[in-house]
């Protein structure tokens, strides 16, 4: 499995968010995007990472970056998760075709049927500026996100 590398274009996708609304990659162009792939809603490691991102939501707003979480959970699970945890982010369901978008980003675990942890920061033109990940059992550090925002601001 090879994650997308900086310079890659935003892969085409058509997913539903937690409200059942269609989100197309083409419709996201013109915005700075941080796509955060993670294994499962309601899991302890994912929760700790999302709570930390929530704590620093103003950093993303200040950098004009839209944060989108992506997992292979259903839209119903994602909505329940976002509401229960009071997360201010949009979540996209890569449930069906199962893991298709996670595969396009190089983060789908075929054996476990889930997205691994991968973060991808795109500029307004849909070009990947920064990508990083961590093992599924380890949350990505806030410092990694800070470094990504700093790198984007320097361009």
From TrEMBL:
Protein name: Thioredoxin domain-containing protein
Residue positions of the active site: 46 (cysteine sulfenic acid (-soh) intermediate)
One Pfam family of this chain: AhpC-TSA
UniProt keyword Oxidoreductase present: yes
GO molecular function, one term: peroxidase activity
PROSITE patterns: THIOREDOXIN_2 (PS51352)
Domain Thioredoxin: 4-154
